[in-house]
Amino acid sequence: MQQRSEETLERLLPAADIAPQRLHQAMRYVALGGGKRIRPLLCHAAGALCQADPAALDRSAAALELIHVYSLVHDDLPCMDDDVLRRGKPTCHVEFDEATALLVGDALQSLAFQVLAEQPPNADTPAAARQLEMLHLLAQAAGSRGMAGGQAIDLAAVDQQLSLAELEFMHIHKTGALIRAAVLLGAACGQPLASADQQRLDHYAKRVGLLFQIVDDILDSEADTATLGKTAGKDAANNKPTYVSLLGLSQAREKAAELRAEAHTTLSHFGDRARRLNELTDYICNRHF
Amino acid sequence: MQQRSEETLERLLPAADIAPQRLHQAMRYVALGGGKRIRPLLCHAAGALCQADPAALDRSAAALELIHVYSLVHDDLPCMDDDVLRRGKPTCHVEFDEATALLVGDALQSLAFQVLAEQPPNADTPAAARQLEMLHLLAQAAGSRGMAGGQAIDLAAVDQQLSLAELEFMHIHKTGALIRAAVLLGAACGQPLASADQQRLDHYAKRVGLLFQIVDDILDSEADTATLGKTAGKDAANNKPTYVSLLGLSQAREKAAELRAEAHTTLSHFGDRARRLNELTDYICNRHF
């Protein structure tokens, strides 16, 4: 499935020999050949729960990953986290230059919405009104009351003592919003859910987003740079609050285990239809990079 | 009509007291209270040609302006043009900080697509399939083969000797794509045009985009900073090719006059329905800031 995401992105990104070549080369450099593709995987797994056609999911999955990659490129810029390593390679502004990295992020965001606004090629894909809803959801998740807002809260949190509730508020925006969107967009590509089931899935999506972040914090505090493919120990070095700095390592691990259990309980209602989401939840919890 | 654009943006931008407050304050700082609103004006004027409901045009006009404003904020950043003055006020990264300006641009872009993906509130607004087409058009105009691509070509052009054809290629992307989108989105909100009329309008849209840029270059070379509300003579100082540096002032003025005449000729077919587009063309040609 990661291979499928890679192939879809490969197909949707402008070719490196189309003008402006350097920009397109840089867009492909950051978007291809790396990454865990968690958001595409969640999108496809939620789609499977709703019997969505995998072909219909490809565009949503790609749009989600494009938004995610743009955020990484901008997050790594000198005026933000000023990082040199991402997905095991030099960051975009190091490999190219700062102005190009800025435009790469900008253009990837546009491309995400372009991809999702593409007319459905056949009747298996969701109808136009549903696709508009999906675009709206993705834009909200990416914007000032979602991911970009979370980055702003993160900036303000440097050197601050946050409460657990404030830390959670930050992460619900910064990573949670897009992960939630991944699950909901996947489901929106399939058979409509009854309202109570939609709420169950939404609850799951929020919990798995938080789980992802806690595991990220644990890995950042434990693993080394080579394993992570990005600079390890960065949050502590930048004096940013994390689940580990607030709770300590063992309590953070406990919280992750609790969230995983809660996610499985929430999904149990769906029976075998949620198999892939269950597997992915375990993968997110047990990953080592 | 400029007042109407201002009111729509005022309504669509998140309130300054919603978290993250500083980000929302900065978004409102850059988007409200300034600007010529050329793209919203073009959108409404093209809508008038197609008998569009002005209420249906408001969202498209706002989305176009949000994309434009985001591009100004990023263009002013130190890694791009490093400018301190915009619309008569300190630029976003000067008034706030660089990281905030980066996020303001990112969040404004998301908001543009969110606004345009809003479900039509009544049957007067274009149907969902048409709205998807409009989203696709806006995303293309903003992305790597439109505005962001034009910025990348512009970066590469510093200290380069461009031919007139290369300069035109740059501007077709950098400013032309979004101005063209303004005209086409406005028309898409109204009664569908016959194919030949659609092509006429598209031709007009491309010419008026070029006209806008040539007049911009002339003003940049002639006016002072106080009149422009942005740093004057910047292109020459940055050793960037312009129509004035390539053609000289009097030939640039001649080209502007020719483009205006061609725009009017193209619109003449539409008779009185094009009155507002004709007036706007003259305004774009004769503006002094």
Structure characterization notes:
- Two copies of one chain form a homodimer.
- Chain A has 289 residues and is mostly helical.
- The first copy, chain A, has a single domain (2-286), classed as Farnesyl Diphosphate Synthase.
- Chain A is 71% helix and 1% strand.
- Chain A has helices at residues 2-12, 21-31, 38-49, 54-75, 92-95, 98-117, 128-142, 147-157, 164-188, 195-222, 225-228, 234-237, 243-247, 249-268, 275-286, and strands at residues 85-86, 89-90.
- A two-stranded antiparallel sheet of chain A has the order 1-2.
- In chain A, helix 3 (38-49) packs antiparallel against helix 4.
- The radius of gyration of chain A is 18 Å and the shape is globular.
- The two termini of chain A are 18 Å apart.
- At the A-B interface, helix 2, helix 4, helix 6, helix 7 and helix 8 of A face helix 2, helix 4, helix 6, helix 7 and helix 8 of B.
Structural class of chain A: mainly alpha
Number of helices of chain A: 15
Shape by Cα distribution of chain A? globular
- Main pleated-sheet profile of chain A: 2 strands, antiparallel
DSSP strand count of chain A: 2
Oligomeric nature of the chains: homodimer
State the CATH architecture of chain A.
Orthogonal Bundle
CATH topology tier name of chain A: Farnesyl Diphosphate Synthase
Distance between the termini of chain A: 18 Å
Order of helices and strands of chain A: HHHHEEHHHHHHHHHHH
How much strand content do the residues of chain A show? under 5%
